[in-house]
Amino acid sequence: MERGANSVKLYFSNTTTIITTMLILILIGFMSYCFINRNNIQFWGRRILILAIYGLVVCCFAAARDGLDITIQNAVEGTSIAGGIFEIVSIPTIVGCIGAGIIIISSIIALFIKSQNVKEVLFFIMCAGIILKIITVEIARIIM
Question: pLDDT by residue (tens digit) across 2-28?
Fold first, then answer.
């Protein structure tokens, strides 16, 4: 019973966790909507822009929620402040960087591509990077 209560606290314990949870659910909803309606979407550039900007906002909230800024400050300055929930070199941070790289590279490529078919593929590559980040970080949070 207590494990379930702790899982709820991970997502609804304070304002930052509640906002982050809601932002993640909206992001998943947007990606799902685009997947379901992909045959009716003519212009993928706007969706790539929305996904990149909104995804960055969600990533910033998730990093704040998990104390990544404190972990980085601790690693750079060697302060005695307790770090966030993940170490600077850990599976969630490494996978997060790989996912971010996928998203950034896909976004930049999309700027120079005219074909909507290629932009659609890039959109879903970005979605895969985002889903990879979400799954890895959330599973790691539950395990910890």
Answer: 555 677 888 888 999 999 999 999 999
